[in-house]
Design goal:
The protein is α+β, with helices and mostly antiparallel strands. The protein is built from 10 helices and 17 strands. A hairpin with a 2-residue loop joins strand 2 and strand 3. The protein binds succinic acid (SIN) and cobalt (II) ion. The site of succinic acid has 11 residues, from strand 6, strand 10 and strand 11. The site of cobalt (II) ion has 3 residues, from loops.
Protein backbone atom coordinates (compact mmCIF):
# COMPACT_ATOMS: atom_id res chain seq x y z
CA UNK A 1 0.00 0.00 0.00
CA UNK A 2 1.33 3.43 -0.99
CA UNK A 3 1.61 5.75 2.00
CA UNK A 4 0.78 9.41 1.32
CA UNK A 5 2.96 10.55 4.25
CA UNK A 6 5.91 8.84 2.56
CA UNK A 7 5.26 10.65 -0.71
CA UNK A 8 3.60 7.58 -2.22
CA UNK A 9 6.28 5.04 -1.26
CA UNK A 10 5.11 1.80 0.28
CA UNK A 11 6.41 0.95 3.77
CA UNK A 12 8.35 -1.90 2.14
CA UNK A 13 10.09 0.45 -0.32
CA UNK A 14 10.83 2.95 2.44
CA UNK A 15 12.41 0.31 4.69
CA UNK A 16 14.37 -1.16 1.80
CA UNK A 17 15.78 2.09 0.42
CA UNK A 18 15.80 4.70 3.22
CA UNK A 19 15.22 3.39 6.77
CA UNK A 20 18.58 3.50 8.61
CA UNK A 21 20.23 4.12 5.24
CA UNK A 22 19.71 7.58 3.75
CA UNK A 23 17.66 10.77 4.16
CA UNK A 24 14.36 11.30 2.44
CA UNK A 25 12.69 14.65 1.85
CA UNK A 26 8.94 14.47 1.40
CA UNK A 27 7.33 17.71 0.27
CA UNK A 28 3.78 18.05 1.60
CA UNK A 29 3.91 14.75 3.49
CA UNK A 30 1.10 16.22 5.58
CA UNK A 31 -0.65 18.70 3.26
CA UNK A 32 -1.97 21.81 5.04
CA UNK A 33 -0.29 20.75 8.30
CA UNK A 34 0.30 23.88 10.29
CA UNK A 35 0.77 22.32 13.68
CA UNK A 36 -1.12 21.03 16.68
CA UNK A 37 -0.42 23.72 19.22
CA UNK A 38 0.57 27.37 19.36
CA UNK A 39 3.94 28.64 20.62
CA UNK A 40 2.14 29.86 23.77
CA UNK A 41 0.61 26.45 24.38
CA UNK A 42 4.05 24.87 23.96
CA UNK A 43 5.48 27.34 26.47
CA UNK A 44 2.59 26.39 28.80
CA UNK A 45 3.55 22.72 28.51
CA UNK A 46 7.17 23.58 29.26
CA UNK A 47 5.99 24.92 32.62
CA UNK A 48 4.32 21.62 33.58
CA UNK A 49 6.03 19.58 36.27
CA UNK A 50 5.78 16.28 34.39
CA UNK A 51 6.82 17.56 30.93
CA UNK A 52 10.43 17.34 29.82
CA UNK A 53 11.54 20.61 28.30
CA UNK A 54 14.73 22.43 27.35
CA UNK A 55 15.70 25.90 26.25
CA UNK A 56 18.72 26.22 23.99
CA UNK A 57 20.16 29.70 23.57
CA UNK A 58 23.01 30.72 21.28
CA UNK A 59 24.59 33.84 22.71
CA UNK A 60 27.91 35.51 21.93
CA UNK A 61 29.21 32.45 20.12
CA UNK A 62 28.31 30.05 22.96
CA UNK A 63 25.57 27.47 23.42
CA UNK A 64 23.55 27.60 26.62
CA UNK A 65 21.13 24.97 27.87
CA UNK A 66 18.41 25.31 30.50
CA UNK A 67 16.14 22.49 31.62
CA UNK A 68 12.45 22.82 32.52
CA UNK A 69 10.00 22.98 34.09
CA UNK A 70 10.13 26.73 33.50
CA UNK A 71 8.47 29.60 35.24
CA UNK A 72 6.30 31.44 32.74
CA UNK A 73 8.17 34.67 33.43
CA UNK A 74 11.26 33.03 31.85
CA UNK A 75 9.84 33.42 28.34
CA UNK A 76 9.35 37.17 28.63
CA UNK A 77 13.10 37.60 29.22
CA UNK A 78 14.29 35.75 26.12
CA UNK A 79 16.17 37.52 23.31
CA UNK A 80 14.44 38.23 19.98
CA UNK A 81 16.53 35.68 18.07
CA UNK A 82 18.69 32.58 18.28
CA UNK A 83 16.99 30.40 20.85
CA UNK A 84 14.70 27.42 20.81
CA UNK A 85 12.32 25.75 23.21
CA UNK A 86 11.92 21.96 22.97
CA UNK A 87 9.31 19.82 24.68
CA UNK A 88 9.57 16.03 24.68
CA UNK A 89 6.66 13.53 24.76
CA UNK A 90 4.01 16.01 23.64
CA UNK A 91 1.95 12.91 22.77
CA UNK A 92 1.50 12.35 26.53
CA UNK A 93 -0.37 15.61 26.82
CA UNK A 94 -2.25 16.15 23.56
CA UNK A 95 -4.60 13.56 22.00
CA UNK A 96 -3.92 15.19 18.59
CA UNK A 97 -0.20 14.55 19.08
CA UNK A 98 -0.85 10.89 19.95
CA UNK A 99 -3.00 10.69 16.79
CA UNK A 100 -0.14 12.14 14.75
CA UNK A 101 2.21 9.45 16.12
CA UNK A 102 -0.35 6.82 15.07
CA UNK A 103 0.16 7.98 11.47
CA UNK A 104 3.66 6.53 11.76
CA UNK A 105 2.44 3.08 12.70
CA UNK A 106 3.92 1.66 9.53
CA UNK A 107 6.98 1.44 11.83
CA UNK A 108 6.56 -1.13 14.65
CA UNK A 109 5.32 0.40 17.91
CA UNK A 110 8.24 -1.24 19.71
CA UNK A 111 10.52 1.20 17.84
CA UNK A 112 8.40 4.31 18.21
CA UNK A 113 9.43 6.69 20.96
CA UNK A 114 7.80 10.08 21.14
CA UNK A 115 6.80 13.34 19.53
CA UNK A 116 9.01 16.28 20.41
CA UNK A 117 7.90 19.77 19.46
CA UNK A 118 10.14 22.80 19.18
CA UNK A 119 9.54 26.48 18.76
CA UNK A 120 12.21 28.89 17.60
CA UNK A 121 12.24 32.53 16.53
CA UNK A 122 14.43 33.52 13.57
CA UNK A 123 17.89 31.94 13.70
CA UNK A 124 16.96 29.49 16.47
CA UNK A 125 17.98 25.83 16.51
CA UNK A 126 19.99 23.29 18.45
CA UNK A 127 23.10 23.65 16.30
CA UNK A 128 24.85 21.15 14.04
CA UNK A 129 24.65 17.69 15.59
CA UNK A 130 23.68 14.09 14.99
CA UNK A 131 21.23 11.89 16.87
CA UNK A 132 21.56 8.20 17.58
CA UNK A 133 18.02 7.46 16.44
CA UNK A 134 15.89 7.67 13.30
CA UNK A 135 13.76 10.77 13.11
CA UNK A 136 11.07 12.31 10.93
CA UNK A 137 11.27 16.11 11.11
CA UNK A 138 7.86 17.45 10.20
CA UNK A 139 7.55 21.19 9.70
CA UNK A 140 4.64 22.86 11.47
CA UNK A 141 4.17 26.58 11.51
CA UNK A 142 6.73 28.69 9.61
CA UNK A 143 9.89 27.66 7.79
CA UNK A 144 13.12 25.94 8.72
CA UNK A 145 16.28 25.60 6.70
CA UNK A 146 17.69 22.10 7.08
CA UNK A 147 21.33 21.48 6.27
CA UNK A 148 22.50 17.90 6.28
CA UNK A 149 25.75 16.03 5.79
CA UNK A 150 26.86 12.41 5.74
CA UNK A 151 30.29 13.48 7.04
CA UNK A 152 32.25 10.90 8.98
CA UNK A 153 33.81 13.52 11.26
CA UNK A 154 31.72 13.44 14.41
CA UNK A 155 33.87 15.13 17.04
CA UNK A 156 31.84 17.24 19.41
CA UNK A 157 32.60 20.67 20.83
CA UNK A 158 34.22 20.03 24.19
CA UNK A 159 32.61 21.51 27.24
CA UNK A 160 29.40 22.54 25.42
CA UNK A 161 26.23 21.77 27.39
CA UNK A 162 24.73 20.02 24.37
CA UNK A 163 26.11 17.84 21.61
CA UNK A 164 27.41 20.23 18.93
CA UNK A 165 29.63 19.09 16.04
CA UNK A 166 33.05 20.75 15.95
CA UNK A 167 32.99 20.81 12.14
CA UNK A 168 29.93 20.75 9.97
CA UNK A 169 30.06 20.77 6.19
CA UNK A 170 26.62 21.06 4.71
CA UNK A 171 26.21 18.88 1.63
CA UNK A 172 22.51 19.41 0.96
CA UNK A 173 20.03 21.93 2.17
CA UNK A 174 16.31 22.47 1.88
CA UNK A 175 13.87 25.04 3.15
CA UNK A 176 10.98 23.16 4.73
CA UNK A 177 7.53 24.70 4.84
CA UNK A 178 4.47 23.64 6.81
CA UNK A 179 3.64 20.01 5.97
CA UNK A 180 7.07 19.14 4.51
CA UNK A 181 8.98 16.36 6.22
CA UNK A 182 12.58 15.16 6.31
CA UNK A 183 13.54 11.64 7.39
CA UNK A 184 17.05 11.20 8.77
CA UNK A 185 18.75 7.93 9.68
CA UNK A 186 20.78 7.67 12.90
CA UNK A 187 24.13 9.50 13.09
CA UNK A 188 23.37 11.68 10.06
CA UNK A 189 24.68 15.19 10.74
CA UNK A 190 22.04 17.92 10.53
CA UNK A 191 21.38 21.52 11.44
CA UNK A 192 17.95 23.11 11.37
CA UNK A 193 17.78 26.90 11.44
CA UNK A 194 14.48 28.72 11.92
CA UNK A 195 13.64 31.23 9.20
CA UNK A 196 11.25 33.48 11.07
CA UNK A 197 9.08 31.97 13.83
CA UNK A 198 9.00 28.23 13.32
CA UNK A 199 7.75 25.03 14.92
CA UNK A 200 9.11 21.57 14.18
CA UNK A 201 7.60 18.21 15.11
CA UNK A 202 10.16 15.43 15.59
CA UNK A 203 8.84 11.89 15.46
CA UNK A 204 11.65 9.94 17.11
CA UNK A 205 12.34 6.23 17.30
CA UNK A 206 13.80 4.26 20.16
CA UNK A 207 17.33 3.03 19.85
CA UNK A 208 18.62 1.77 23.19
CA UNK A 209 22.36 1.20 23.28
CA UNK A 210 23.46 -2.42 23.27
CA UNK A 211 25.05 -1.77 26.68
CA UNK A 212 21.69 -0.53 28.04
CA UNK A 213 19.88 -3.57 26.63
CA UNK A 214 22.39 -5.95 28.17
CA UNK A 215 22.35 -4.23 31.56
CA UNK A 216 18.57 -4.14 31.66
CA UNK A 217 18.34 -7.77 30.56
CA UNK A 218 20.73 -8.84 33.32
CA UNK A 219 18.60 -6.96 35.84
CA UNK A 220 15.53 -8.74 34.48
CA UNK A 221 17.29 -12.11 34.75
CA UNK A 222 18.12 -11.36 38.36
CA UNK A 223 14.39 -11.35 39.10
CA UNK A 224 13.57 -14.45 37.08
CA UNK A 225 16.50 -16.81 37.50
CA UNK A 226 15.87 -19.65 39.98
CA UNK A 227 18.74 -21.99 40.79
CA UNK A 228 18.60 -24.57 43.58
CA UNK A 229 21.19 -25.70 46.08
CA UNK A 230 24.27 -24.32 47.79
CA UNK A 231 27.96 -24.30 47.04
CA UNK A 232 29.48 -27.65 48.06
CA UNK A 233 33.05 -28.96 48.12
CA UNK A 234 33.25 -32.49 49.52
CA UNK A 235 36.44 -32.82 47.43
CA UNK A 236 38.12 -29.81 49.07
CA UNK A 237 41.92 -29.89 48.75
CA UNK A 238 44.39 -28.63 51.35
CA UNK A 239 46.01 -25.36 50.21
CA UNK A 240 49.26 -23.64 51.14
CA UNK A 241 47.80 -20.11 51.24
CA UNK A 242 44.56 -19.99 53.20
CA UNK A 243 43.72 -16.56 51.66
CA UNK A 244 44.04 -17.76 48.08
CA UNK A 245 40.87 -18.33 46.01
CA UNK A 246 41.69 -21.73 44.59
CA UNK A 247 41.44 -22.77 40.97
CA UNK A 248 39.12 -25.55 42.20
CA UNK A 249 36.67 -22.99 43.63
CA UNK A 250 36.77 -20.78 40.52
CA UNK A 251 35.99 -23.81 38.30
CA UNK A 252 33.10 -24.92 40.51
CA UNK A 253 31.51 -21.46 40.47
CA UNK A 254 32.11 -21.20 36.74
CA UNK A 255 30.11 -24.44 36.33
CA UNK A 256 27.32 -23.15 38.59
CA UNK A 257 27.05 -19.87 36.64
CA UNK A 258 26.84 -21.75 33.37
CA UNK A 259 23.43 -22.89 34.60
CA UNK A 260 22.22 -19.32 34.19
CA UNK A 261 20.73 -19.80 30.74
CA UNK A 262 17.90 -18.14 28.88
CA UNK A 263 15.85 -18.72 25.81
CA UNK A 264 14.00 -16.52 23.31
CA UNK A 265 10.90 -16.57 25.46
CA UNK A 266 12.86 -14.97 28.31
CA UNK A 267 14.14 -12.37 25.85
CA UNK A 268 10.67 -11.54 24.52
CA UNK A 269 9.31 -11.38 28.06
CA UNK A 270 12.11 -9.00 29.00
CA UNK A 271 11.50 -6.88 25.88
CA UNK A 272 7.76 -6.61 26.51
CA UNK A 273 8.34 -5.39 30.05
CA UNK A 274 11.30 -3.17 29.22
CA UNK A 275 9.74 -1.50 26.18
CA UNK A 276 6.45 -0.74 27.93
CA UNK A 277 7.97 0.34 31.25
CA UNK A 278 6.85 3.93 31.88
CA UNK A 279 9.70 6.42 32.29
CA UNK A 280 10.30 7.53 35.86
CA UNK A 281 8.47 10.87 35.53
CA UNK A 282 5.29 9.39 34.02
CA UNK A 283 2.25 9.52 36.27
CA UNK A 284 -1.06 7.73 35.63
CA UNK A 285 -4.16 9.39 36.99
CA UNK A 286 -6.77 6.90 38.23
CA UNK A 287 -10.36 7.87 37.40
CA UNK A 288 -13.23 8.33 39.84
CA UNK A 289 -14.25 4.90 41.15
CA UNK A 290 -17.09 3.14 39.38
CA UNK A 291 -18.46 -0.37 39.83
CA UNK A 292 -17.57 -3.16 37.42
CA UNK A 293 -21.23 -3.28 36.27
CA UNK A 294 -21.31 0.42 35.43
CA UNK A 295 -17.93 0.12 33.72
CA UNK A 296 -19.17 -2.73 31.49
CA UNK A 297 -22.34 -0.78 30.65
CA UNK A 298 -20.12 2.11 29.52
CA UNK A 299 -17.85 -0.25 27.57
CA UNK A 300 -20.87 -1.41 25.59
CA UNK A 301 -21.58 2.15 24.50
CA UNK A 302 -18.27 3.98 24.21
CA UNK A 303 -14.84 3.24 22.77
CA UNK A 304 -12.15 2.73 25.40
CA UNK A 305 -8.67 4.03 24.65
CA UNK A 306 -5.18 3.62 25.98
CA UNK A 307 -4.34 6.63 28.15
CA UNK A 308 -1.93 8.94 26.34
CA UNK A 309 1.01 7.80 28.49
CA UNK A 310 0.22 4.08 28.17
CA UNK A 311 2.48 1.74 26.26
CA UNK A 312 1.12 -1.61 25.14
CA UNK A 313 2.74 -4.38 23.09
CA UNK A 314 2.24 -8.09 22.57
CA UNK A 315 4.25 -11.09 21.50
CA UNK A 316 2.55 -14.39 20.79
CA UNK A 317 0.04 -14.96 23.56
CA UNK A 318 1.74 -12.53 25.96
CA UNK A 319 0.48 -9.01 26.47
CA UNK A 320 2.49 -6.18 28.02
CA UNK A 321 1.14 -2.92 29.33
CA UNK A 322 3.12 -0.27 31.19
CA UNK A 323 5.74 -2.71 32.43
CA UNK A 324 3.26 -5.47 33.39
CA UNK A 325 3.17 -8.86 31.67
CA UNK A 326 0.20 -11.16 31.39
CA UNK A 327 -1.04 -14.14 29.46
CA UNK A 328 -4.73 -13.50 28.85
CA UNK A 329 -7.23 -16.23 28.06
CA UNK A 330 -7.32 -17.05 24.35
CA UNK A 331 -10.73 -15.49 23.76
CA UNK A 332 -9.52 -12.10 25.02
CA UNK A 333 -6.28 -12.11 23.06
CA UNK A 334 -7.56 -10.77 19.73
CA UNK A 335 -9.30 -7.82 21.36
CA UNK A 336 -6.24 -6.99 23.44
CA UNK A 337 -4.02 -7.20 20.38
CA UNK A 338 -6.41 -4.83 18.62
CA UNK A 339 -6.17 -2.42 21.55
CA UNK A 340 -2.37 -2.57 21.44
CA UNK A 341 -2.27 -2.01 17.66
CA UNK A 342 -4.79 0.82 17.40
CA UNK A 343 -4.86 2.18 20.99
CA UNK A 344 -8.65 1.90 20.96
CA UNK A 345 -11.29 -0.79 21.48
CA UNK A 346 -14.70 -0.11 19.97
CA UNK A 347 -17.85 -1.09 21.87
CA UNK A 348 -18.99 -4.70 21.60
CA UNK A 349 -22.26 -6.23 22.69
CA UNK A 350 -20.67 -8.85 24.91
CA UNK A 351 -17.53 -8.93 27.02
CA UNK A 352 -16.31 -12.12 28.64
CA UNK A 353 -15.89 -11.80 32.40
CA UNK A 354 -12.13 -12.20 31.95
CA UNK A 355 -11.80 -9.38 29.38
CA UNK A 356 -14.15 -7.07 31.28
CA UNK A 357 -12.18 -7.57 34.52
CA UNK A 358 -8.85 -7.01 32.82
CA UNK A 359 -10.03 -3.78 31.21
CA UNK A 360 -11.61 -2.71 34.49
CA UNK A 361 -8.33 -3.20 36.40
CA UNK A 362 -6.39 -1.21 33.82
CA UNK A 363 -9.03 1.49 33.79
CA UNK A 364 -8.82 1.77 37.58
CA UNK A 365 -5.03 2.05 37.32
CA UNK A 366 -5.38 4.95 34.87
CA UNK A 367 -3.97 2.92 31.95
CA UNK A 368 -7.20 3.26 29.95
CA UNK A 369 -9.73 6.02 29.49
CA UNK A 370 -13.07 6.57 27.77
C1 LIG B 1 14.49 21.04 16.55
O1 LIG B 1 13.29 20.81 16.43
O2 LIG B 1 14.94 22.19 16.56
C2 LIG B 1 15.50 19.96 16.74
C3 LIG B 1 15.29 18.77 15.94
C4 LIG B 1 16.59 18.04 15.71
O3 LIG B 1 17.51 18.58 15.13
O4 LIG B 1 16.74 16.88 16.10
CO1 LIG C 1 18.53 16.24 15.69
Amino acid sequence: MKLPHLGGLTAKQFFRDYWQKKPLLIRQAFPHFSGLLTPDELAGLACEEDAQSRLVIFKQGKWQLESGPFDETRFAKLPKKDWTLLVQEVNHFLPEAAALLQQFNFVPTARLDDLMVSFAPDGGGVGPHFDSYDVFLLQGMGKRLWRISDQQQQQLVEGAPLRILQHFESQQEWLLEAGDMLYLPPRYAHWGIAVGDCMTYSIGFRAPSVQELATQFLMHLQDTVALDGFYTDPDLLAQTHPAEISEQMVSKIDDVLKNVVWNKRDVSHFLGIYLTEPKAHVIFTPPRKISLEKFVARLQKEPIKLALQSLMLFEGDQVYINGLALQPKTDALIDLQKLADTRVLHPMERYTEHLAELLYDWYQAGFLQF
